[in-house]
Design goal:
Layout: H1 3-23, H2 27-37, H3 43-66, H4 73-94, H5 102-119, H6 133-153, H7 158-170, H8 174-199, H9 204-228, H10 230-253
Length: 254
């Protein structure tokens, strides 16, 4: 057991949990750290290992938000179930077909999201009802299916896409969108975790210490987001989207 590698990965997991609890995107920190620190292991095994700390981070974030932010309980439960099934299916498809086309597509979408959020200053600053209850139900369940599949099939940026969907399609502000996104992301992470456990692709000696570090980071991140509110989360959202764009562009151009 390489204890120095465990300590390094726990540090990155703490940071990933902190960022993920605020606006999502912890995988953008954690996954590259795994690939760089443990290059001798197969990539599917490393990705599978990150799912356990990601799941714990999402659960901690969801718990912290749910204590202070009202959740649309009658719709979020079915949405989580749909996202769970879609994420499992996405992981199954990933094991049989390549997902190389997803990165350019996600890059184009994220650039559009960044520009729109930057220009529209009031985006996500106020919670407002823009759809009927019936439309809200359909849109949330559609989001659960689409983004859940994306998380299982590709993954990076899932939390950000969930936040964006809750703001643009449902009318939530950033804080309420983050609260709901954590619940759905916990469901998709659970599905991926169970899939990789079944496939035997998890390094438990790394996964559990990383999970503890991720929990700690998520606790602090969620508390900070709740304390600072929508303006702070908007800035963090723009920063994370910009970082994601740069990372995807680097991967495509190198």
């Amino acid at each position: 057991m390489d204890y120095s590698a465990v300590l390094v990965l726990c540090g990155f997991s703490f940071l990933a949990g902190f960022v993920d609890a605020i606006i999502g995107g912890g995988g953008l920190i954690q996954t590259p750290a795994m690939l760089f620190t443990l290059p001798r292991y197969p990539v599917p095994t490393l990705i599978g290992t990150t799912k356990i700390p990601s799941m714990f981070s999402s659960l901690m974030g969801a718990f912290q938000y749910s204590r202070r932010v009202a959740v649309v309980g009658r719709f979020i439960g079915p949405m989580m179930a749909i996202a769970f099934g879609a994420s499992w299916f996405g992981s199954w498809v990933l094991s049989r077909v390549p997902n190389s086309f997803m990165k350019p597509l996600a890059l184009v979408i994220l650039i559009g999201v960044f520009i729109y959020t930057l220009i529209k200053k009031d985006f996500g600053q106020v919670s407002h009802r823009v759809v009927t209850a019936s439309q809200q139900q359909k849109r949330m369940w559609f989001m659960g299916a689409g983004i859940g599949f994306y998380d299982g099939f590709f993954g990076p940026g899932t939390g950000s896409f969930l936040v964006l969907g809750f703001i643009a399609l449902i009318g939530f502000d950033f804080l309420k969108a983050s609260a709901h996104a954590k619940l759905v992301n916990a469901s998709t992470n659970l599905a991926s975790t169970l899939f990789f456990i079944n496939e035997g692709k998890i390094l438990y000696a790394f996964a559990f210490p990383m999970a503890i570090a991720s929990l700690s980071g998520a606790f602090l991140g969620a508390r900070l987001a709740i304390l600072k509110g929508n303006r702070f989360i908007r800035v963090f959202f723009l920063f994370l989207i910009a970082a994601t764009i740069l990372r995807f562009a680097w991967d495509l151009l190198r």
